[in-house]
Amino acid sequence: MSSFFNDIAPLTYDPDADGLAFRHYNPDEMLQGKRMEDHLRFAVAYWHSFAWPGGDPFGGQTFDRPWWGETMDGARLKAEIAFEMFEILGAPYFCWHDADIRPEGATFEESKRNFDEIIDLFEEKMESSKTKLLWGTANLFSNRRFMSGAATNPDPDVFAWSAATVKNCLDATHRLKGQNYVLWGGREGYETLLNTDMGQELDHMGRFLSMVVDYKHKIGFKGQILIEPKPQEPTKHQYDYDVATVYGFLQRFGLEKEVKVNIEQGHAILAGHSFEHELAMARELGILGSIDMNRNDYQSGWDTDQFPNNVPEIALAYYEILKAGGLKQGGTNFDAKLRRQSLDPSDLIAAHAGAMDVCARGLKAAARMLEDDALEAPRRARYAGWETPEAQAMLTSDLATVAARVEGGGINPEPRSGQQEKLENIVNRYV
C-alpha cells in the first residue's frame, strides 16, 4: 500500500457521519427490485482522476502526483494508487484510454509493450479486487498525428495507425472482460470546408466503424460498441455531434443494430440539449448504452467536466434511464475532474463520494416518480385522444381522408394547457 491517500479507510454508508462517508448511496438498498449499486454501476475515469495534471486553457499543471513523468515506474505506481482508490470508494468499475495508463513510446511497438505490461498488472489486480472494467477506449486525439482526425484523417497512414491502436485496445478490453468499448471521436470533424472532403471523410469513418464491429465479432467480444456524441470541441464541427446525428450516421452504414451511444452530460449541454433530452432520444431510437456523468459551468463556453451536484438535473436523467429499462451493460462513469485548486488527495475521494451521493438521490427521486405515476399519468392524459379508434385510423389512412374529418365540419379543436408549471412543481416535490 502507498501513503498517497494517508490511510483513508474504505467509505461506508453512514447518513450521520461527520467525515468522508456516503450519506445517500447505499449499495444494497433495493429500488424497483434491484440493488442501488446495480442500477448505478459507478465507474472511475482513469484519465481525469490519475492522468490530468490540473491545467486549463490558460494555465498548466497545478497537481503534484508521485507518478508524474513518462516512465513505466510511474505508470505502475499510478495503477497501484488507482486500485487503492477503487477500494476506498467501493467502485464497481473503472474506465481507461490507452494513453492514460502507459507512457508513449518512440514507436508503435514500444507503446504497445508499455500498454501490455500495464494490462498485465490490471489483470493481476482485478483478480483480488471487486472493481471490474466498464469500458476501454483509445486516445485518438491528443498526439499531434491526430490533429486532422483519426478515421477521417486525409493521411491513410494515420487511418492505419488508428486501426492498429483500436485493435490493441479492443483486444485488451476483451481480455479484461470489459462490458463495453467506446469510440470517442473529438477529432473526427473539420476546422474549415476549404480543405475538407466531407463525403470522403464520412465514408472512411463509416468503414472504420464497420471494421471495429466486424473485429468485435471475430474475437468473440460480448460487450457493447459505443460512440460518444461530442459537439463543438476540439474541432469546429464534429461528425458525431449529438445522439440524433450519430443515429443517422449509423443508419447510413447499416450499424444501428450493432452500435449504441455513451452519452455525456457535458456534451449534451454543448450540443444545445439537456441531458435528459439526449437520454430520451437514445431510448426512443433504441441505442442507449452508457453514460458519462459530469456537469459544465454554465458561465463557461467549454466542457469543464465538473463532478455532478445538481439533484433535480440528475433525477430527470435517471428518470429517462429507468424508463429505458436501466443501464444494463452500461454504467455511470464519472468523466469528471477536480478543480485545479483542489490539490489534496482526499479531494479525489470527497469529489467521487459527493457525486455518488448526488446520483443516489437523483435515482431514488426518479424511482419514486415512476412508482407514483407522477409524470406518466398526466402525460397519458395529454395524449389520451389518440387512443380512440378514429384517431388511430388516421395513422393508417391517406391525407385526403384525414382532411375530410375537418372539411366536413365535424371537429373544431380548442387548445388545452400543457401544464408545464404544475409538472415542474411535481418534480420539485420529489427532489
Automatic annotation (TrEMBL):
Q: Which domain of life is it from?
A: Bacteria
Swiss-Prot/TrEMBL catalytic activity = alpha-D-xylose = alpha-D-xylulofuranose
The Gene Ontology CC terms held by the record are:
cytoplasm
EC no.?
5.3.1.5
**Which residues catalyse the reaction?**
H97, D100
Which family would the database say this protein is a member of? Belongs to the xylose isomerase family.
**Name of the protein in its database record:** Xylose isomerase
Q: What is the source species?
A: Pseudosulfitobacter pseudonitzschiae
Q: What does the organism's lineage look like at the top?
A: Bacteria, Pseudomonadati, Pseudomonadota, Alphaproteobacteria, Rhodobacterales
